Amino acid sequence: xxxxxxxxxxxxxxxxxxxxxxxxxxxxETLGTVTTKTASEGRIDLGLKEALNVGIKNSIxxxxxxxxxxxxQAVKILLPAEVQKAEKVLRTAGFGPExxxxxxxxxxxxxxxxxxAAGIFADxxxxxxxxxxxRILNGSNTAATDYLKNKTYxxxxxxxxxxxxxxxxxxxxxxxxxxxxxxxxxxxxxxxxINPDMGNYVSAKALDGLFYMLAKEEEQxxxxxxxxxxxxxxxxxx
Length: 238
Known about the structure:
By secondary structure, the chain is an all-alpha fold.
């Protein structure tokens, strides 16, 4: 009887020990999987944000210099639609030089304001979530740019506009526009044009140009291994 009791105690102890060992092994394996997954998600998140930051840095470097906008037909800021409708008449009347100077001044203002967008973009990028990052990574070649534009465009425009307004003042953009509008009114049978908000107009066009260039940069990082200039980008975008 005593022997049976002793064997029973040993068996219970053995089973408890085995169960505890198994539980710890499973727990360790589970935690390891979660940790690996979390680390992977973290790398994806960091990699995506780094890709955007690299893209923005490169885009601003291209656009934020003289002729960055003006000499690039893809992002060049053109005359407002109201002026374009009367452009032929204005040029025929001898106002071509004024139109050209006005166009140049808008682009110069955008070129000078572009570097000021870096901090605004950086703040917006930090708000991208892990889940969003994973969806973006598996999306199109411009998925990150599209996401950033859809989520933050209005906010970015509001924050970017004061910087553009300031540089517009240096190049007398509004004054030049008002002079053109006044001349247009003086031309018989042409009539007047509706004065647009030039600050908003130039800011929106400048921001559109930045997003266009950012999309091109993102596409490069996704499709061209040589564009992955950091170890993290090489790891995430395989």
